[in-house]
């Protein structure tokens, strides 16, 4: 504490001499200061920022979803497919669709 007061007093004295207390404006003055002693505050050491590691990404295989089988419904009496035959007195038969041999009209 005594050192701090001594350092503050010497700084105040140096500043007042540098400002030219008692000197006329025409006089030129120079000021040189030399500081020797112990620093008033301990040095500040910044710690490096903490390293945060992200967990590795988790990759999963895409789930293969099988499309449900599509059916055409056929009626024996009267012969035809739904919706061309609106009702069937016998049970409808599920038939897997077959691609036509010729493309539909208008598409070549």
Structure in a nutshell:
This protein is α+β, with helices and mostly antiparallel strands and 108 residues long.
Which SSEs are present, and which pair or pack?
Layout: H1 2-19, E1 72-75, E2 80-81, E3 93-95
Antiparallel strand pairs: 1-2, 1-3
Could you explain the architecture of this structure?
With 108 residues, the protein is α+β, with helices and mostly antiparallel strands. It has one helix at residues 2-19, and strands at 72-75, 80-81, 93-95. The longest helix has 18 residues, at 2-19. The model has no long low-confidence stretch (mean pLDDT 75).
Q: Report the count of strand segments.
A: 3
Strand content: 5-15%
The sequence of SSEs as H and E is: HEEE
Mean pLDDT: 75
Q: Quick one: biggest sheet?
A: 3 strands, antiparallel
**Overall geometric form:** rod-shaped
Instruction: List the uncertain runs.
Output: none
Helix content: 10-25%
Q: End-to-end span in angstroms?
A: 102 Å
Summary keywords:
three-stranded antiparallel beta sheet, 8% strand, rod-shaped
């Amino acid at each position: 504490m005594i050192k701090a007061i001594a350092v503050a007093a010497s700084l105040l004295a140096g500043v007042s001499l540098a400002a030219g207390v008692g000197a006329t404006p025409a006089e030129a003055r120079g000021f040189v200061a030399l500081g020797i002693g112990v620093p008033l505050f301990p040095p500040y050491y910044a710690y490096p920022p903490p390293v945060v590691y992200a967990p590795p990404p988790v990759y999963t295989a895409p789930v293969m979803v099988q499309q449900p089988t599509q059916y055409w419904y056929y009626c024996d009496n009267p012969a035809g497919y739904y919706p061309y035959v609106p009702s069937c007195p016998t049970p409808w038969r599920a038939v897997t669709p077959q691609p036509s041999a010729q493309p539909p009209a208008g598409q070549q």
